[in-house]
Amino acid sequence: MAALNGVKTATLTQAYLESNQVKETKNLITELCRQFYTLGWVSGTGGSITIKVHDDCIPKPQQLILMSPSGVQKERMVEEDMYVLSSTGSILFSPLPKPYPHKAPKCSDCAPLFMKAYEMRNAGAVIHSHGMESCIATMINPLAKEFRITHMEMIKGIQGHGYYDELVVPIIENTAQERELTESLAAAIEAYPKSTAVLVRNHGVYIWGDSWISAKTQAECYHYLFEAAIKLHQLGLDCSTPSHGPIQSFKGLSNVNHSVNMSVKAGSAISNNGIEPSHRCIVLDIEGTTTPISFVTDVLFPYARENVGNHLDATYDSAETQDDIKLLRAQVEDDLKQGIVGAVPIPPDGAGKEEVVAALVANVEAMIKADRKITSLKQLQGHIWRTGFHKSEIEGLVYDDVPEALEKWHALGIKRAILWFGRNMSRMICLEGGARKQAWRIIDHYRMMSCWKRPAYLL
User: What pLDDT shows up at residue 427?
Assistant: First the structure.
C-alpha cells in the first residue's frame, strides 16, 4: 500500500493496476473511441481521450490517469493498449509492442495538454477531437481569437451556461507538433476561467469535464454548436447575436465613399446583407471600379494609339508580338470579308517588316477609333500598356478608397482579384500583399453585389 497525503491507496501496486476500477475505465475508453470514430472525431488515428480512474477512496487530484496511445486506429483499440499514468503524469504502465504492421506503442502526444486540464481545472476526463466542424469553426474568421455563439438550446449542455448566455471559446493557433501547443493552451485556460474547451485553429478542440459523462456531454454540445455556427454562416446569419439575423458588417470597419457615388463597407458583405461567410474572394473590374473610366479613354487609349508603331517595331521578332500579329491578321481577314470600315490588307511576312508594321498600325488605329471590343486589339493594347508602365511613361490611377478597401479585405483573409477576359478563358489577377500573381480559372457563376455602383463580384 502507498500513502498519498495521508490517504492509504493501492495506486502503485500491481493488484490495483488490475483492479475492476482500472479495467472498467480502460474498457470505457475503448467504447468511447469507437463511438467517437463514427462521429469523425478520432479518424485517421487522430484525436484522443483520457479519463481518471474514479475511486471514492482516493482524492480526485491523486487518482490514476488512463490515456489512449498515439498513432493507433482508435476504433480498434483494446484494454491492453491503454497507458496508465500517475496523477503527476508519470507513466506507470505501458502496453506491450504488437507485431507488424502495428507501430511501437507510444503515449498520446496530447499528454502534456491533457495534464494542463487536469492540473488547472481538476478535470475528470479530457477529450481531444479532430471533428471537421471544430476545424471549420475556427476558419470562419481567420483573425478571430474567440468562437462566440448565443441563444441556442444546446448551450445549456455546456457547464455554467444557459440559453441566454453567450458561449465564448478561445482559439489558439496550431503548431507543427502537438506538444508545442501546451503553453498556449495553458494560457487560454487561465484567461478563460468559464470555458471548458479550447479550439485549435485548423486542427480541432480540447474539451474537459468533471467526469467522463460531463466531458462527453459537453463535447456533443460543442460539436453541435460548431456545426450550427457554420451553417448559419453559410446562410449569411450571425450566430453571435440573439436574433441570429443577417450579418451586417465586420465590427470596427467604417464606410468608405468616393466622388462617383460608390459606397461600400470595406471588408463587409458587399451585398445588402453584408459579406456572405462562405465566399472568400472579391473579384473587381478595373475600368469604372478601381479606376475612373476617364483614365482609360484619356490616358490608356491615346498611349496605345501613339505607341503601337514603336512597340511593334521594337518587339517584332518576339514570340509574344508574333502571336499578337497572328491574331490581328486573322481579325483583319475577317473584317475585309465583312467590309468593315478602316480595314486594310496586311502584307505577308516576306514583304518586309516595315510594310507589315505600317499596315498593322493602320488597322489598329481604325480599331481604336471605332472602340472595338475584340481580343486581338485588347491583347496588343495590354502589351503596349505594360511596356508603358515598366518605362514609367504611364502612371496608374485608382479611386482614393481602393487601397484602404484592399488592405482591409486582406486583413480579413478575403482574397482580392482583378478579372479580365482573354481568349476562351477568364483570367483572374490575384492581388496578394501588393504583388500580383496570375491565376487562371473558368468563372462559371458570378454574384453581382447590389450595393456597389461599380461592377464587382463575390465568389
Answer: 43
pLDDT of residue 12: 58
Note the pLDDT of residue 371: 83
DSSP letters for 24-75: HHHHHHHHHHHHHHHTTSSGGG--EEEEE---TTS-GGGS-EEEPBSSS-GG
Distance of alpha carbon 172 from alpha carbon 185, whole angstroms? 7
Among residues 132, 139, 137, the alpha carbon closest in space to that of 413 is found at: 139
Q: Order of strands, edge to edge, in the sheet holding 204-209?
A: 91-93, 83-85, 65-67, 48-52, 125-129, 204-209, 197-200, 166-172, 146-150
Separation between Cα atoms, residue 169 and residue 208, nearest integer Å: 13
Question: Is residue 72 within 8 Å of 19, Cβ to Cβ?
Answer: no
Q: Active-site residue 153, yes or no?
A: yes
Give residue-wise pLDDT tens across range 353-397: 899 999 999 999 999 888 888 999 989 999 999 999 999 999 888
User: If you ran DSSP here, which 8-state letter would residue 110 be given?
Assistant: T
**pLDDT value at residue 318:** 94
The pLDDT of residue 173: 96
**Residue given cell 443577417 in the structure block:** 246
C-alpha cell, 58: 482516493
Active site residue: 24, 31, 153, 306, which one? 153
Q: Buried (b) or exposed (e) across 35-64, using 16+ Cβ within 10 A? A: ebbeebbbbeebbbbbbbbbbeebeeebbb
What is 272-301 written as a DSSP string? Answer: TT---TT--EEEE-SBTTTB-HHHIIIIIH
Greatest extent of the chain over all pairs of C-alpha atoms, in Å: 107
Please tell me the pTM assigned to this model: 0.56
Say if CB 208 and CB 121 are below 8 A apart: yes
Model confidence over 221-271: pLDDT tens digits? 999 999 999 999 998 899 999 988 887 644 333 333 332 222 333 333 333
State the Cα–Cα distance between residues 299 and 396, nearest whole angstrom. Answer: 10
b or e along 238-268 (b: 16 or more beta carbons within 10 Å of the residue's beta carbon)?
bbbbeebebbebbeebeebeeeeebebbbbb
Query: Would you say 267 and 412 are in contact if contact means Cβ atoms under 8 Å apart?
Result: yes
**pLDDT at site 295:** 86
Residues of the chain with pLDDT under 70: 1-12, 248-280, 419-459
Please state, in angstroms and rounded to a whole number, the distance separating the CA atoms of residues 11 and 88.
13
What region does 81 belong to: left with phi over 0, alpha with psi -120 to 50, or beta? alpha
